[in-house]
Amino acid sequence: MVHGVRDLHTGDRPWCAGAVLLAGRGPVIAVEEAFGWAERYRAYDPRTDRGVELPAGRWRPMRTGTPFDLASLTKLFTTVAVMQQIERGALGVDARVGTYLPEFRAAAEHRITVRQLLLHTSGLPPELPLYDLPDDTARLAALRAQEPVAEPGRYLYSDVNMLLLQHALERVTRRPLDVLVREGITRPLGMTATGFGPCPGAAATEDQRRPWAKADRGMLSGEVHDENAWALGGVAGHAGLFSTGRDLAVFCRAILAGGAYGTARILAPDSVDLMLAPPGLGFRTDQPWFMGELSGRGAAGHTGFTGTSLVLDRATDTFAVLLANTVHPCRRPPDSAPRATVGTWLARAVVPG
Q1: Cα 171 from Cα 28, distance rounded (Å)
Q2: How many domains does the chain have?
Q3: CATH number of the domain that 120 lies in?
Q4: What is the pTM of this model?
């Protein structure tokens, strides 16, 4: 497993500049390795379709403790925060979003539910160009007015779903999402390296410029990559968190243990079952395109656009975290084959039961 991941950052067009791989079973971390570079390029040159390298002495090596922009792995933390409020009775899993956010008139009129947002079956579009709107007032108005673009009940992956869940959470708790994540998840679990940015020392991501990106921000390091999360101040239900392999291992172990880690409990086992049992609430289940041979036996997990992923296998009490800066120095067509390979390695390394 380790040798294969090491190859991901080599060659003429490597999958990533660098990566951290961590895998474990139960309380044991079996693999923890770092490869390549947390920062290697100062820019991307579209004429040559190559990165412009920093002077060799300024290349920053990847460490096992290097933080990463988690991108859509943030959705898992938003999901846990939602499940916590469902346990407390502040949200209902089958309640209509309009119950909590009546001013979100399109969601209210179409009777979109909390469950549909978590399942990505609300019909809402994958994203909105909030980064092109002039201010927070205009962004909020766009979210409130957004109509479904597909028939509710059909799967359509959408960042907008998680933004509505963020607003519902903040309405019923009267606390911002970053506080909910910190007080309800990361602090109880001792995840001291996890939080919304900025995050000095994080692995670099993209030289973000138009036309390949949606904003002109230059080379990003420690600032959220997702353009909408950036436009929203860095805290968003779909993106914005930074973390390390070790911290995510704690998160994985807590979920696999039914919502508890050490003396801390963040969820009841029934809530974990709702998240991980097919079709999964917030988590994706049995997805061979990024889980490999772990798929088909109840595995659950998620991926992030910047090159992050995690997968949990309750059948063997195992997990794998792969953090890579695949968008450094520039985004490329999606390729989850290396993620799937890690899932297959893990599946072949352990026996169910």
Answers
A1: 39
A2: 2
A3: 1.20.58
A4: 0.97
